Amino acid sequence: MDMRKFTEGKTGGIDQFCPPLCFELAGQSFYFEMDDGFDYELKFIDEKTLEWNFAGKEPAKADYLCVKGDETTYLLSFDLQDVQQRENHTFVIDKENWLCTRILSRIGDNPRYPYLIAPKYEFGAIKREGVEYRVY
Fold first, then answer.
1. What angle do CA 50, 56, 61 make, to 5 degrees?
2. Cα–Cα nearest to 133, from 35, 25, 17, 8
């Protein structure tokens, strides 16, 4: 069977098999208290754009994609703009347990294999009014 007929005229990659995009986070903002000590802020401007920054630093804008895992879990991804090496930030936001996972993926860190993507996983909590963050 010639499989090319199923891809003719399509430019999408694996994202063509993803669930519909979620726009529920538009207008919301989050402050993540990360276990590595570098807190992070996300502010969703609209359905396509967000502002991100490490706490205390200048915010930058990025276009994002978000899909919903279940009623309280979101998978969010965006590429950093105006950087030397391509870098992607992916977040798993769990609003039921008020936790988050941040995956930083960079290309070009490995001198032997420059196109190998190097992910780094970091865990944290979503800051809430009146609740102190504790590391166990």
1. 20
2. 35
**Residue 34: how many CB atoms within 10 A of its CB?**
18
What is the tens place of the pLDDT at every residue in 49-83? 999 999 889 999 999 999 999 999 999 999 998 88
Chain centroid to CA 58: 18
Residue type, 98: W
Structure tokens at 48: 């396509």
| Residue environment code for 118-128, b if the CB has 16+ CB neighbours within 10 A, otherwise e | eeeebebbbee
Distance CA 9, CA 116 (A): 29
Nearest residue to 107 (alpha-carbon basis) of 83, 132, 77: 83
The CA distance from 129 to 3, in Å, is: 54
